[in-house]
Amino acid sequence: MAEVSATVAKKQGDFNLRTIVLPIIAIVVLVAYFSYVNPLFFSASNALNIGRQSSVLLMVALAGTVVILIGSIDLSVGALVTLTGILAALTVDQFGLAGATLVGIGVGALVGLVNGSLVTMLKVPSFLVTLGMLSILSGVANQISQGQSILFADSLLPDLVNGSFVLGIPNVIWFALIATAVLTVVAFRTKLGRYLYALGGGEIVASHAGVPVTFYKILAFVLAGAICGLAGVMLTGQVGAGTPTAGSSLLLNSIAAVVMGGTALSGGIGGPHRTFLGVLVIAILTNGMDVTEVNSFTQDIVKGFVIILAVSLTIDRSKYLFIK
After folding, report:
1. Residue 312 forms part of a structural domain
2. Cβ neighbours for 150, distance < 8 A, ≥ 6 positions apart
3. 73, 115 Cβ separation under 8 angstroms
4. Which of 151, 224, 225, 313 is close enough to 108 for a disulfide, judged by CB 3.0 to 4.6 Å?
5. Does residue 33 lie within any of the structural domains?
6. Where are the transmembrane segments (predicted)?
7. pLDDT for 53-102, tens place per residue?
């Protein structure tokens, strides 16, 4: 028995090491390649551009990580960012920055509550629930905005998001980094974090160990929704308007970032710190292809291959008797 446990522990250690090292290698290789192709890529100004471009993506990927850690998935994250961004644009002039932020976070948490409740209480797979929610939220966002950008007069939100309080680094970057640090602490230093990993490791075992499975699964979706709501407000501040297409690319890129960072879609492995590395890979890849003038269609093809490769390297096959 001891030998079996040691073998399992060794395999798990090798798996964790591989999923940490690969993103770091990818970052080094991508930076070296794009810097060689275009020296302007390796500059302080472009580094800030990468940070600005990836901050909202990092927030959305963190939200996705929370749900993926329990072995579920949330396909509505991009549409939720779009909707909450539009709502923030509609409310910021009347209720101010604080009011618009609360609306965004509140609506996001409410959507997460609905998603989590449907998954746990009706026993509907998270893929199907959130796929349907994606369509609902997209329709609501377009209905509210009538397919047009929502402008606002308030200057505090854009100034806060795009301004800089520390070291000349845009605040939006600091917000995303702080969110990463807080969620990493939650993942590894709180009961909530331990239970999320336990659920991803196996719901039946977690239930037998006394974990309130339904409550913490719903809580994971609520937390993810709240983070997406905040990301929507940040995106509206960054763009200066609420737009019905704002979150269209976030779903694909966030999933790519999560799995590229080493958080397994099967659940129980990875975490926010891994997602940070994954977002860096996707952000550097995207920015590098922009700088080297790779067309957008080719970029989508490349990102698709990246997702397939990342999933094949990070999936925990020991959890599956059959691959369907």
Report:
1. no
2. 86, 89, 90, 241, 242, 243
3. no
4. 225
5. no
6. 20-44, 56-89, 95-114, 126-145, 165-188, 218-237, 249-269
7. 899 999 999 999 999 999 899 999 999 999 999 999 999 999 999 999 99
What residue type is 196 in one-letter code?
L
d(CA 303, CA 169): 28
Q: Single out the residue of 264, 244, 269, 282 nearest to residue 60, CA to CA.
A: 282
Question: Which range marks the domain in which residue 220 is found?
Answer: 54-247+264-270
State how many domains the chain has.
Answer: 1
Q: Does 73 fall in a domain? A: yes
Per-residue pLDDT tens over the stretch 93-118 = 999 999 999 999 999 999 999 999 99
pTM, entire model: 0.88
N residues, the chain: 324
